[in-house]
Design brief:
The complex is a heterodimer of chains A (about 100) and B (about 130). With about 100 residues, chain A is α/β, with parallel strands linked by helices. Chain A is built from four helices and five strands, in the order βαβαβαβαβ. In chain B, helix 1 runs parallel beside helix 2. In chain B, strands 4-3-2-1-5 form a five-stranded parallel β-sheet, sandwiched between helices. The chains are: A alpha/beta (about 100), B alpha/beta (about 130). At the A-B interface, helix 4 of A face helix 1 and strand 5 of B.
Amino acid sequence: MADLYTVNKSPFEKNSLEQAIRFSADGASILLIEDGVYGAMAGTAAEGLVKGASGRKFFALRSDVKARGISEDRLIDGVELVDYAGFVDLVESTDKVQAWL
Amino acid sequence: MKLAVQVNEGPYQHQATDSAYHFTKAALEKGHEVFRVFFYHDGVLNGTRLTTPPQDDRNIVNRWVELAEKYDLDLVLCVAAAQRRGLVDDGEAERNGKDATNIAPKFRISGLGQLIEAAIQSDRLVVFGD
């Protein structure tokens, strides 16, 4: 089983998304929460990071996306929205959880 | 699944304590066990009963207390972090000669070993903070 990485900082503030992608193994899941959800927006300088990370599954916390006024049609293709129950399911279905703070 | 949760950030700082609370609540509502919530660094500020946020704002401390009462959660403040930030229970007041306590109900102050134990005993450790 693969690992789950949580990223809670904007890719325009810190490089934690880039690092999480770089250090994650193939098959890893990366969950964007809090300001990390800015990394899920299409048409930004960070889009290439996410699109270039083949073999990684990307998720974003729906309530944090909504709280920042990001409409769902502005999300990068392939980013899946989850709620907190989905967050719990991701934790359960992966081997371990690493927070990239 | 048995979970341990670590909170490294103070309330009303960014969003980490909110995330940790909603995650913990969702896990409990799904029937998972939360072995312990360990508050570290500025996270210990989640455990003072003296906060008075505006009435139309969420009360982060009371929210933890209510969740702990409902699910008998173990809420632990790191003792060294608590001493630095003035979080005091009866034992700490006596030991350090303080004239008051401020710890919220359902919270307790203990050592870092409680975090290690929680990590060993649980299937997953989920960390929230800066």
